[in-house]
Each structure stands twice: as C-alpha cells, then as structure tokens.
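Q: Joint fold for the lines below.
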Amino acid sequence: DTELTQSPSSLSASVGDRVTITCRASQSIGMYINWYQHKFGKVPKVLISTALNLQSGVPSRFSGSATETSATLTINGVQPEDSATYYCQHTFLAPYSFGQGTKVEIK
Amino acid sequence: QVELVQSGGGVVQPGGSLRLSCEASGFSLTSYGMDWVRQAPGKGLEWVAFIRHDAVYTPHSDAVKGRFAISRDVAKSTVFLQMDNLDPDDTAVYYCAKRKGTSTTAAWDQWGQGVLVTVSS
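A: Joint structure:
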C-alpha cells in the first residue's frame, strides 16, 4: 500500500504570500496525485488532478508539480478565502490514500 | 446537472448495521466510478471503498474490509454502502464521490453532501 506524507501539517500565511505544500509517497505513483481543498462545513473540492491539471473554475494562483514519488501544491498570492485544509490523495492503485492534511490559516 | 444526494446516516449501537445511499442524477453510473470517503471527528479524510463503472472492481480499505460493502443499483441510479458490525471508530461523516471518468486513476469531481454516522451505545 502507498502511504502519503504531507507537510507541513499547518501553516500561517499573510495575504499575498506564496504557500507551498509537499506530499511524499512511499513508492512510485506516477503522476496520479490529486489535491483537494476542504473548508469547514463544506464538501471537499478538487483543485488539481493528475499532479498538474488545474480544474475548471479554480483560480490560477493554484498550481501543482510532481515527480514519481512526490508532489507539490503552490498557492501564489494566497487570499483570505484560501483558508482551509488541503489534502493530497493518490489514485494509482487501491487503497487510494490521502495525506494527513495541511491546515492553512490566513493572518 | 450532476448531483449526488445522500441518505441513511444516523445513530447505531456497536455491532449494528446501517446502509448509506447516494442517489446520482445528471449522469449514468455505468460511465463513472464512484467512491465512499469518510472523515472522523477531528481527523482527516479517509478513503473507504470504490466501485468501478462496470461494477466488476470494488476494492475496500483494510479498516472496513469484511464489514462494509459497496454496491449499486443502476436502475435506481444509486450507490450503496452496507455497513455491518459497526464500531465506534466508524463514527464519521461519510461522503459519496463521483470520479471524473471510467479510469480507476481519475480524481473526484463531485461530492454528496455528507451524512453523519454515529456508533455509540
């Protein structure tokens, strides 16, 4: 089974900062990493699929990059509405595990 | 318009059973994979089970294997999660989620509203 280790577990950023969240896989998972944003009381929302693909309607300040065993979510110019928990998740092979999540607070 | 409407949550005693439903509209279950995902109080998201578009492949997480079963009724456009021998650790908000296509590597692009399952005596 593939485990995903996400870091940091939380961070605090000011409006306009660049935020980077990393997800490392215990084995090669190709580019089959997805990123979700989960706000309290809402359903999760996909931001990036297959490591690089920005989903329709997602602001362009969000971007993704990856290697065979790691992926990065970057928010260039974080906004107040980006306050949420972010999860990486792989769809390489079942079980389709999640990272532990990164709670992003906007100062 | 794609929509997933969930039902079936509630309070159940340890060892009891519950069946969750996820009614899909705006698309056919024969063209998209579907999953169940849960979030325990104060915890992160946890994948539970998947049913491929052809219903032939239905993996479950180790935490629920042998106790939970995912299935579907195409005529009713509904996906189910039968949960047996429930444990307090199964207490969580359960979401159904639609894959972006037939591939098992597809991400989720639509979610149900979530239902709370509480396992307590």
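Q: Anything notable?
A: The interface with chain A takes residues 35, 37, 44-47, 50, 59, 61-62, 95, 97, 100, 104-109, 111-114 of chain B (CB under 8 Å). The mean pLDDT of chain B is 97.
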